[in-house]
Specification:
147 residues, alpha/beta, six-stranded parallel β-sheet, 41% helix, globular, binds adenosine monophosphate
């Protein structure tokens, strides 16, 4: 098991489809990663090749974050399906544990300015999907023009 004191320690919260994919990709890259989920069964979504750490617990709970050694993390990435959960974890990581890089998955972009002011980076899956879809659309449109 890798050491949480190592450089570039990344903590992901929520082992759903997105969280497990990010954790597996980082682990494949040889990164030092820990994924937290309140439901142990969720860790089954991780690939068999995952060599990072797992921690069962509710990441809105201060003691769980302490056990994860959030203060040592270079990145904290909360990606549950709940905006309020992700923002709460992001704020605790940023304000209390002084983590520099916090990236939260959010669905509702309405308060994006507030999050940016708090220094929390955000990703909106709907935007990413729209961007991907539009880039396919424009590629197809260009190809159709050339025919
Ligand atoms: P959900 O947001 O409930 O759809 O779940 C996405 C994943 O995040 C699931 O595997 C949940 O068990 C996990 N999850 C949701 N909330 C928390 C939390 N507060 N702490 C840790 N894991 C969570």
């Amino acid at each position: 098991m890798k050491n949480k004191n190592e450089k570039n320690y990344t903590i992901i919260v929520g082992c759903g489809r997105l969280g497990s994919t990010i954790a597996t990709a980082l682990s494949n890259e040889g990164k030092n990663v820990l994924i937290i989920d309140k439901n142990e069964d969720s860790f089954r979504k991780l690939s068999h090749a995952y060599s990072g750490q797992t921690l069962e617990g509710d990441a809105t709970n201060f003691e769980v974050l302490q056990e994860a050694m959030v203060d040592k993390a270079t990145f904290v990435i909360p990606v549950t399906h709940s905006d309020s959960t992700n923002i709460m974890i992001a704020q605790i990581a940023k304000e209390i544990f002084k983590v520099n890089n916090v990236i939260a998955r959010l669905y509702d972009p309405e308060r994006d300015i507030v999050y940016k002011e708090l220094g929390i980076q955000t990703i909106y899956p709907a935007y990413l999907e729209a961007k991907n879809l539009l880039s396919c659309f424009f590629k197809e449109e260009e190809a159709a023009k050339d025919e």
